[in-house]
Amino acid sequence: MVRGEAMDAACKLARGYTGKTELISVDGGWYGETGFSMGLSDRGDKKQFGTLIPGQTIVEFNNIDAAQKSINHDTAAFILEPVQAENHCRKADEKYLRELKLLCEHFGTLLIFDETQTGFGRTGHKFAKDYYGVEPDILVFGEAVTAGVFPMTGLVFTPEVKTFFDAHPLIHLCTFGGHDVGCRVACHMLDQYDAKRPWEQTQKTGKRLMDDLRSLLQDKPEVLDSVSGMGLLVSMRFKDRDVAKDFCVAARNNGLFVVQGAVAKESVVLRPPLTITENEIDQLTDIVKIVMKKI
Known about the structure:
CATH class of the largest domain: Alpha Beta
CATH topology of the largest domain: Aspartate Aminotransferase, domain 2
Radius of gyration: 19 Å
CATH architecture of the largest domain: 3-Layer(aba) Sandwich
Strand order of the largest sheet: 2-1-3-6-7-8
Strand content: 15-25%
Number of strands: 12
Distance between the termini: 39 Å
Largest sheet: 6 strands, mixed
Oligomer: single chain
């Protein structure tokens, strides 16, 4: 099951459990390439696919007033990424998420976090929700559950939501869902995560990487606008998308694979392995410095 399918399953589950249909997300989000996911994502090519799934609304990110005006007794779920990886790693405010959680509880609306790109230690915490101290009703996780060696994503949810799922286990099906090999890989990796706790090391290496990249802001202010992120999920925002594209090409030619943000195309997202060492961070930073001189 790929990322978009996991979000689709979460939306189906939210609608089934609450008996409501309206789904609300925020600007700057990116959830995948399938049905519900495409409609909820902030992307400019939606019209190419005709009429998408109805009952979906997008409101301003980090704006609790916008959420209050939109959430009502017909709202099944409010959906967001705590850290928008594809949008220059824009982070939710802690106060915003706490107030949003209370608002959802008041209206019987499920809060869904998409942690496809932030889960299993990427942000310096096991999940980004742990940093904020806010528990969603449904959490979508990504391919990190199998360390990226098997295409598997999924979702977890509260015991209350599970009662509905247990009564309707076929609410979402996919051809390779629950693949035996994938599940064995995932079970092994879950044990490895608990044993090695890579998020603890990620806090240190992520800070080192962030500090090194931010030092470049003084060297090339005419090219590099800002650096943001959390842990080892880091984004560099350039003056425009063309410069970002040139950076990606030059980086690949120098042995560093990076891509532009899917939402903020003037940004470039770095997602190094959680096992990266300080020596490897130095190598990564050296490549970035070389590339910066060429663009």
